[in-house]
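[step 3/7] inverse_fold.run input=structure_tokens len=322
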């Protein structure tokens, strides 16, 4: 697993030294790799061989087939994880492992457990059988009761570096592509976001459309603002992404105006579009950036969607006609 080798090495050492905790909290942003790491750790615990996971023993084979009775996982399907889901998992704790040294229970998005669910889990954490290992993945451990946190070993998953994300993309898709600089910047250290963008032609096509709109807005001459609004309306469920694309365009414009260095551009594959508008004064670019932030704050405060977007588009256009 690229990006979290240090964590995996520490977990592997714990298994080798027979120093495995009975409960862990994996904490970090959604998509950063907590579940993947938890599954890799579980594969180590499932295997009884010296070189683990061996991939060939009965336990490993059942684990790969998702049929090992010593492994259980809760994946959040509703807004919260109910007490019934937790109780169903806990029922089998009294039965010793059939194929492995450990029974492993992964609770994804454990910060979505109801209070009743947390209380049910706490009883098992207070006096766990020696063969049980709980792994709770959370975005914020503050949403989990302190009584649970105090009984778990907390492992913090930081956002990955620019180069780590690039390596993950390369391992999945081969040679680097021109639009990866944008993808890595937008992902902000979260591998899951980078992979989602790389796999989705829609997101990259939407980026093309938004960049064309933004470039047209800052160019001299008239622009059909209401036609541009249609793009926002069609993608209102992705408006954060659209606004981020616009902000990165203006960021690149400022960087290029200051340095003249295209290698510093996030949208380096769109450098011609940046250079085309390099004559825009700094003060005008800053007004455009402010207009985007105003729209984002308005939408976060439940402002009228159409009004917020149309005002932003008009401010951007007006900034370049003054």
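[step 3/7] decode complete -> sequence:
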């Amino acid at each position: 697993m690229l990006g979290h080798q240090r964590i995996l090495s520490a977990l592997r050492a714990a298994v080798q030294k027979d120093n495995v905790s009975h409960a862990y909290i994996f904490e970090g942003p959604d998509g950063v790799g907590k579940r993947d790491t938890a599954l890799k750790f579980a594969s180590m615990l499932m295997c009884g061989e010296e070189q683990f996971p061996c991939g060939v023993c009965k336990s490993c084979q059942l684990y790969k087939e998702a049929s090992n009775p010593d492994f259980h996982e809760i994946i959040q399907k509703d807004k919260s994880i109910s007490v019934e889901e937790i109780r169903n998992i806990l029922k089998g704790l009294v039965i010793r492992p059939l194929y492995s040294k450990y029974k492993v229970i992964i609770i994804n998005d454990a910060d979505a457990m109801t209070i009743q669910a947390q209380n049910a889990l706490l009883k098992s954490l207070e006096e766990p059988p020696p063969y049980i290992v709980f792994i709770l993945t959370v975005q914020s451990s503050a949403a989990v009761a302190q009584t649970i946190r105090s009984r778990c070993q907390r492992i913090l998953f930081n956002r990955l570096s620019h180069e780590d994300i690039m390596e993950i993309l390369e391992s999945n898709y081969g040679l680097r592509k021109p639009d990866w600089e944008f993808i890595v910047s937008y992902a902000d250290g979260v591998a899951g976001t980078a992979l989602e963008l790389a796999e989705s032609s829609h997101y990259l096509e939407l980026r093309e459309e938004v960049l064309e709109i933004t470039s047209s807005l800052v160019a001299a001459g008239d622009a059909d603002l209401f036609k541009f609004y249609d793009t926002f309306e069609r993608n209102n469920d992705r408006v954060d992404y659209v606004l981020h694309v616009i902000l990165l365009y203006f960021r690149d414009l400022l960087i290029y105006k200051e340095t003249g260095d295209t290698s510093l551009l996030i949208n380096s594959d769109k450098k011609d579009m940046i250079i085309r508008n390099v004559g825009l004064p700094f003060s005008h670019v800053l007004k455009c950036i402010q207009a985007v932030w105003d729209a984002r704050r308005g939408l976060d405060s439940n402002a009228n969607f159409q009004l917020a977007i149309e005002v932003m588009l008009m401010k951007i256009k007006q900034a370049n006609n003054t």
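[step 4/7] annotate
The two ends are 52 Å apart (CA to CA).
The first helix runs from residue 5 to 16.
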